[in-house]
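Write out a record, fold above all:
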Amino acid sequence: MTRILVNLTCFFGCAFVGASLVLFTGWPLALVAAGLCFLATQHIMAAFARRGDKRATAREFAQIRKMTIAFQDQIDETRARIGALDALIDERTNAQSRKIVSELKVLESLMREFAGKISRGASEAQVRRMPSTGPAAAYLGSFGDKNELLETIRASLEENRVDLYLQPIVSLPQRKLRYYEALSRLRDADGAVIMPAQYIKVAGEAGLMSVVDNLLLFRCVQVLRRLAVRTREIGIFCNISAETLADAEFFPQFVEYMAANQDLAGLIIFEFAQDAVLACGPEGEKNLSRLAGMGFALSMDHVETLALDFVRLKTIGFRHLKVRAGTLLEGMSGAGAAVAAEDFKKLLSRHGLNLIAERVEDEKTVLQLLDYAVDFAQGFLFGEPRAVRDDASRPATVQPEPAPVIPFRRAG
């Protein structure tokens, strides 16, 4: 704007001077004077331009300084973030290394125990010590004798023919998948499945159940880590036998292994049979409390009596109680319950326990369970146990539905 005013002023000034000289001196001097006025005008304009350029340059330099300072701040922030990321990577790497070291220690102990317990000489000696009648003999099934069954169990463990099966546990009334129960199955050399009802008693008396339990535990941890990539809303109940709970040599290492995997505390629930818990004694309760102290919830299944000390269970760390649907619907008094079925959920809630009804197989049972405000349910109605393939369980297959979320194949 200033430059325009100067141009107009110079123009009219030159015009006035030129007109005056034409009148008083004639055209030649008028032209010379006009040229001088024009040169003066250009000089003045150049001076104003230089002043404007200096101000513009100063503003540009000021803007550049601001941008440089902002860029330096961004560089400093980026460096700080890279440093924090390096520290996080180092921390996670160290944590992963600790987990690997802990797992290797457990595996080393497991393999030492395994080598000692399933060698042919040891197995045969243990078989000879087994009674020909009683619990072990009752579970022989299609096997000819105890020696044949134990030899099959030994070979299945030695050759890693141990499969992980998962059965869904759903919330009621939504029937939303909330947990899986992990179950183990053995296979003989021909691929036939050996059910727990067949091998647990024999393997327990031969001292092999800790091997089975730990193979199951490692599989559970692997599956949970795959699931946790996509969701942390689905947990797994992992069964631990009475023999493992009472194993004074192994159980401390088991606790150490879980301490290295404490990030899974909200996802894995350790399940123990009622008779194992009632018979575990002070040392067993201490082991259970150590697990609970690390954040791992405990569950009790195979419940035969409901005359329980619920305060003690809560103190130890139990958060779930599994009761057969048939017991809730028609067997409360026979199980020694202190309250009726419709009040049982309230009793458990006062002691921080969730109620899980198991062996639910029809819709009529579900409707009855809803009247008793049961939290969760498990049974063939919601899904049968299915084997997890070793090459499956990928995060992309996770779906928050009651149907199995991991690719399965039917056993057979």
Residues 120-139, 391-412 have pLDDT under 50 and may be disordered.
